[in-house]
Structures are given as structure tokens and as C-alpha cells.
Design the sequence.
């Protein structure tokens, strides 16, 4: 059996302890978040579509991990079979490192390897990921004509059935992978030694815990860090925070002695100590609506951003409105106005209806970067709170309605949009009425947040 795979290799580059724990103590992992599940699902949907660009391939993907050795053998046999022109998920192993190549296409007497990405842009991690695969393929003696990354084309506009030739872009990473081969070889040796250790390597928590990915052993490694530690502040770079933390200033009290009491850094640490939040009221009041609006609408929208466009005229990841709610004092009969669409094709209709309802108000309050032109009367609380330096330990990884509710109110239990969408997609929660209920609850948080700061 193999020791490393693409994912464990990348994990090991981020943190040797994370690699060791994954191999030896996987049960200590944190549970996958709803957002992570959504990203995995999106990746596999795009991968299947990408295969259509090279149709008729043999799928080498094993049903169970125990089948990997058999699939390695079968892949090698297929390479020698001139009838096999394309393989999906071809399995290779070299120097105890196992990889699966998304698409392998026969190219004369050589092969072209293609790694599929569901993103619009290519990150450095993707290049290193490809370099590892090249290292294994080269080690197995596979003659390659090219190694390419295949990713979504942001310029693609759907017009009829999806044209997979135009939906994807191909970028060669062969030169990069060749250049990095000695570095990859050294990394593989180092990480194999880590896995062979009799105990977990001693690695302190640090900036690597969240970069480039949020590690799934945070619950284990951070269990002794107090929930109100200054490590959760956002006013200083993480490098600086960890220097203080391991430099003899581990507590908030000691940290405060190092900081200018009027600085934002100190205000955040004080907020942590007092179990409250911080906001720069001067900046906040400068953002207050002036004059005070007579009729305020609170708007909440449930959107989807499909990687592969579903409607003609749309691009990858373009927003589609699934539902919206408007609450305010100008609604018919004083009731909340809401619309819910169980068909994505009605997104344009939803936008028209939403604009019509909002025309009855002189102020619209929402919590999202608004991609739709609703005029200058919109207050986006998300941007407003960011501009006013709003801080609460829960927002360390970004502000959302859930952590705002936790910071300001203690009687609200929120689901987030992403949760609704994923659950609806998985048929765990098929009722869009449930989505509306959640949108209404969220809208109540939007309203209370606005009134909390501006009334
Ligand atoms: S939480 Fe941090 S220290 Fe622990 S395994 Fe993950 S990256 Fe390494």
C-alpha cells in the first residue's frame, strides 16, 4: 500500500503534524463543515463534466481503497493497449506515493495528463499539486507530451447546451513541474519519514493552522487555547500574534501591557476580556443614513452561484436568485413579503419582483455585497460593519449573520444560507418553505442589527 497520496502530501507540506495525525489518528479530525461539503460536491460535478471533453474513456476509479493496488496494475495494462485512448482517474504509484490523474489522453506515442479544477483561477497550490503528479508519472516512466490544468473559463457564456470545449481552459504546467521535480523528491522523502515516526512530531500551533487551508485538527491542537485569547484578534497579522504568544506574552493581560491603550489592537483585546464586541463608533456614525429614512425595508436573498451556468446568458459562478424576503412597514397588510422559486430559471423574474417591492421604500438594508443595481438607497451592513472595524472573536474568519447574531443577540438560532442550499441539494431538506423561514429569521437579525446601531 502507499504511504502518501496527493492530499496527504499537500497536508504534510502545510504541517507535518497534520500529516501524521491524518495517517495515525484520523478520528481526532474536526467534522467537515457544510461549506467544505459544498466545495467537494462542486469539484466532483465539474470533474464529471470535464470528462465529456474527452469522451469514451475508461474510469479507473476504485470502489474501495483496498482496490488501489489492483487499479495501479490495470492502469499500466491499459497504457499498453492501443485501443485505450482515454482514462479517467488513472491510478499510479511511485516511491510509496499514489496519485489519480483526472484525465489521461493518448497523444501519439505519449500521453497528455490533465488535472481538473473547478475554479476560475489557478492558485500556486494547484501548480505544486500538478508537480507532485508529474513526479509520480515521471517516476513510473510514463512518456508525457504535456501536463495541463483544466479550469473554468470566466468568459464562457451559456448559449444552448453546454459546450465543454469553451467552458474549460487549459494551461500547461509541464515546465513548472519539471523544474520542481528535485524539490518534490526531497519533500516526499521527508514526509515519508514523518509518517514513520513512532509518535506525533512536536509542532506548535501557528500561522500554518489556517494557511493555505483551515486544518481539520484545530479542535485537537487548539483545545488549550482560551476561547477569548488574543490570538483571535484581527487587528494584527497572525505572525505577530504568535510571536507575542510564544514570546512570553501568552495572556490577554500581558498582551495589553504591550499595546497602546488607544489602538484598535488594544480595543479588540479588551473586548475579548469583557466578552463583548468592538466597533469604531466615529466611523460608524459617518456611515449612518442622512437624513433619517421614513420607510426602511429589510432585504434578505437566497442565492446560488453554480460553477456551471444553468441558464442561457449566464457565466460560471454567476448569481442566481432562488428566494428573497422583504420586511418593512410598507408591505401589503403589514406582512412580510417573500418569494420563493423552486426553479432556477425564474431568477430574472425574482429580481424584477424584488425591485418592484423595494421601490416602495426610501432605504433598503441588506447584508451582502449587492450585485444587483438597487440604486443608492441601499445600506449593506456587511460593508458598513467592516468599514466601522466591527470586531468579535467569532468573526476571525469573516463576518456573517450567524456570528453577528452571536455577538449582539443571545436569543437567535441561525442557519446560514450555504447550509440551506447544501441540504436542499442533498434532499435532506427539500422544503423551500423551510428556506423562507430561515431567511425570515436572518432578516430579523438584519433588522435588529440596523436598529441596534442606527436607531
Ligand atoms: S491545528 Fe495547526 S499545529 Fe495542529 S495539526 Fe493542524 S496545522 Fe498542525
Sequence:
Amino acid at each position: 500500500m502507499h504511504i502518501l497520496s496527493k492530499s496527504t502530501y499537500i497536508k504534510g507540506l502545510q504541517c507535518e503534524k497534520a500529516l501524521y495525525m491524518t495517517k495515525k489518528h484520523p478520528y481526532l479530525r474536526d467534522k467537515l463543515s457544510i461549506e467544505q461539503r459544498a466545495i467537494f460536491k462542486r469539484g466532483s460535478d465539474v470533474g464529471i463534466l470535464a470528462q465529456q471533453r474527452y469522451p469514451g474513456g475508461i474510469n479507473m476509479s476504485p470502489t474501495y481503497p483496498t482496490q488501489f493496488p489492483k487499479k495501479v496494475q490495470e492502469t499500466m495494462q491499459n497504457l499498453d493497449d492501443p485501443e485505450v485512448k482515454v482514462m479517467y482517474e488513472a491510478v499510479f504509484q511511485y516511491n510509496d506515493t499514489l496519485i489519480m490523474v483526472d484525465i489521461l489522453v493518448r497523444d501519439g506515442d505519449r500521453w497528455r495528463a490533465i488535472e481538473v479544477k473547478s475554479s476560475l483561477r489557478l492558485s500556486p497550490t494547484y501548480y505544486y499539486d500538478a508537480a507532485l503528479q508529474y513526479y509520480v508519472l515521471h517516476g513510473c516512466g510514463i512518456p508525457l507530451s504535456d501536463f495541463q490544468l483544466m479550469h473554468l473559463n470566466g468568459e464562457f457564456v451559456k448559449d444552448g447546451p453546454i459546450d465543454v470545449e469553451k467552458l474549460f481552459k487549459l494551461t500547461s504546467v509541464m515546465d513548472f513541474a519539471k523544474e520542481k521535480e528535485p524539490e518534490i523528491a526531497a519533500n516526499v522523502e521527508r514526509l515519508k519519514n514523518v509518517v514513520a515516526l513512532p509518535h506525533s512530531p512536536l509542532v506548535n500551533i501557528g500561522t500554518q493552522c489556517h494557511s493555505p487551508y483551515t486544518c481539520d485538527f484545530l479542535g485537537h491542537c487548539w483545545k488549550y487555547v482560551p476561547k477569548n485569547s488574543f490570538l483571535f484578534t484581527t487587528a494584527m497579522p497572525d505572525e505577530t500574534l504568535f510571536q507575542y504568544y510564544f514570546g512570553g506574552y501568552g495572556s490577554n493581560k500581558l498582551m495589553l501591557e504591550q499595546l497602546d491603550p488607544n489602538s484598535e489592537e488594544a480595543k479588540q483585546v479588551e473586548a475579548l476580556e469583557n466578552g463583548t464586541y468592538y466597533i469604531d463608533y466615529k466611523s460608524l456614525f459617518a456611515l449612518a443614513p442622512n437624513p433619517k429614512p421614513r420607510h426602511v425595508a429589510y432585504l434578505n436573498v437566497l442565492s446560488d452561484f453554480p460553477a456551471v451556468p444553468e441558464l442561457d446568458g449566464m457565466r460560471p459562478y454567476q448569481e442566481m436568485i432562488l428566494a428573497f424576503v422583504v420586511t418593512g412597514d410598507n408591505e401589503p397588510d403589514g406582512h412580510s413579503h417573500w418569494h420563493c422559486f423552486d426553479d432556477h430559471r425564474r431568477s430574472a423574474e425574482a429580481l424584477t419582483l424584488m425591485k418592484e417591492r423595494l421601490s416602495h421604500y426610501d432605504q433598503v438594508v441588506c447584508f451582502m455585497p449587492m450585485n444587483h443595481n438597487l440604486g443608492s438607497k441601499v445600506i449593506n451592513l456587511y460593508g458598513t460593519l467592516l468599514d466601522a472595524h466591527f470586531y468579535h472573536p467569532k468573526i476571525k474568519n469573516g463576518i456573517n449573520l450567524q456570528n453577528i447574531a452571536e455577538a449582539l443577540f443571545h436569543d437567535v438560532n441561525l442557519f446560514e444560507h450555504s447550509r440551506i442550499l447544501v441540504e436542499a441539494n442533498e434532499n435532506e431538506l427539500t422544503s423551500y418553505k423551510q428556506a423562507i423561514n430561515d431567511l425570515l429569521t436572518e432578516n430579523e437579525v438584519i433588522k435588529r442589527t440596523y436598529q441596534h446601531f442606527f436607531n
Summary: The first strand starts at residue 4 and ends at 5.
